[in-house]
Amino acid sequence: MTKGVQTALRKGVVDMLPLSFAVLPWGILFGSIAVQRGFSWFEAQMFSALIFGGAVQIVTVELIADNVSLLTILFTAFVISSRHFLYGLSLRERLSPQPLKWRLGLGFLLTDELFAVSGHRRAYQGRLRLFYALAAGGSFYLAWNLWTFIGIVAGASLPDLTDLGLDFAIAATFIALVIPSIKTLATLVACLAGATAAVVFQLWQFELGLVCAALIGMSAGYVVSKMRGAA
Amino acid sequence: MTLVTIVLLACVTFTTRYLFLEGRLPVRLSSNFKQFLSFSGPAVLSAIFVPILLVHDHQLDLSLQNPYLWGGAMAVAAGYRTGSVYWTVGLGTLVFVLVGYVF
To answer: Could you tell me which of B79, B83, B73 has the C-alpha nearest to residue B50?
Structure first.
């Protein structure tokens, strides 16, 4: 392994570290819910190892335990997961020319968190940046599975940690990634519109809220950039 | 049976992530659409972090006792001034913890 690759791998892990720790309460919550709802430890771990999606797991583990029909379970997972289409589309130009093993690997690891650290204008271009993304996504995967495992082992004996405020770390990291990227009025409008819509949808508890809010923000940014381009 | 369901769910999440990374999928992105997509990063991240700051227990929390609001404001200011992830997360979290401790 060359020194360059090592540096890229280390930077990927370090950049992801705040997000890896921020999801600890949810990983533990998921593991303990799964065991309490009667799943074996192996099944519970397989949720995190194969599905690898916090919201999808926490919702579907309850649906399966309640014997909801398979079609409903799959459709619910599809709705919650649909925002990833947006990430795939955004990264298509950079990732679709890459070899299959990179596409499959990074595609599997493409969570909100990996997309968040993919904002660099040269992201995924060149071997080192692919290794960087692999380390960021891969370390997040290992962390999520470790937190799940702790939740499985601890079961009901740990208190609910989700109100400890660790989600602030997600907000702070995303702020750190977004604010320096706001260089034009159009980007600022995209952020404000997306954020406002997301707050309203969250209050309505609308399942497709995140993806709709993102589309509203993107449309607003696009319209402003067109208007300014025409002026 | 549960394992079959888990594998099917994994297929659903993987498909939503991988589909558009497949080059053979006959989708051409026009330059207008690419411009639209260029706003996806900032729009998605804002749509995730702002509700974390403002919405708790399905209610809008704009009170001055909300530590998320203070910590978030500090992080925005630090991000704007320094452009550094470490300063932004560090100062934001410091204010978040201090305000949470006071109230």
So the answer is: B73
